[in-house]
Amino acid sequence: MKFYALLILPLGTDVYDGSAVEAAAARLMQPFEMWRDDGPPGEWDYYWCCTREWLVEHGEDLAEWPAALADAGHLVVPVDALCEGDATFAVVTPEPGWFNSRATYTDDDAAWGGRAVEIFRGFPGHYAVLAYCHG
After folding, report:
1. Across the chain, where does the E strand assignment appear?
2. What is the pLDDT of residues 63-101, one digit of tens each?
3. Rounded Cα gap, residues 108 and 120, in angstroms
4. How many angstroms separate the CA atoms of 47 and 41, rounded?
5. Which residues share a beta bridge with 79?
6. What residue numbers bound the domain in which 57 lies?
7. In the 8-state DSSP scheme, what is residue 3?
8. Quick check: pTM over 0.70?
């Protein structure tokens, strides 16, 4: 399954430095690797942080992310600006925590947007980067 996730970056991450964003994302995603035998069940076998360029090349409309930082190379958004319509399939938090929709190919998860907003509101002042994942 391929999906998007919002990775809520730890406070202090330099969101204009692509290497810093990638390093923070790697630390957030590491506990959820599919091939790990210890810890929670894995959620991904590969991912990458979405650059604005990659998204445009793949037909994504950046206008759907009006709060995204225009000067950042990756699609980075202030968490305070995220709303229900911004809820991706999964949200990864600095705890670490992995939260995802219960939607399937045949069933929707009507409660997910509201739940995602609850998660977002728990991280005032943070930024999130959009990641493309396969799990």
Report:
1. 2-8, 46-49, 76-78, 90-93, 97-100, 127-134
2. 999 999 999 999 999 999 999 999 999 999 998 799 999
3. 21
4. 16
5. none
6. 2-134
7. E
8. yes
Spatial neighbors of 134 by CB under 8 A, at least 6 apart, are 1, 2, 3, 44, 45, 46, 47
Predicted confidence (pLDDT) per residue in 36-72, tens digit: 666 666 687 888 999 999 999 999 999 999 999 999 9
For 117, the token pair is: 């907003």
Element (H, E) at 121: helix 112-121
Dist CA 91 CA 6 (whole Å): 5
Total number of residues shown for the chain: 135
Secondary structure E strands in 9-100: 46-49, 76-78, 90-93, 97-100
Number of separate domains in the chain:
1
Both tokens assigned to 15: 């969101």
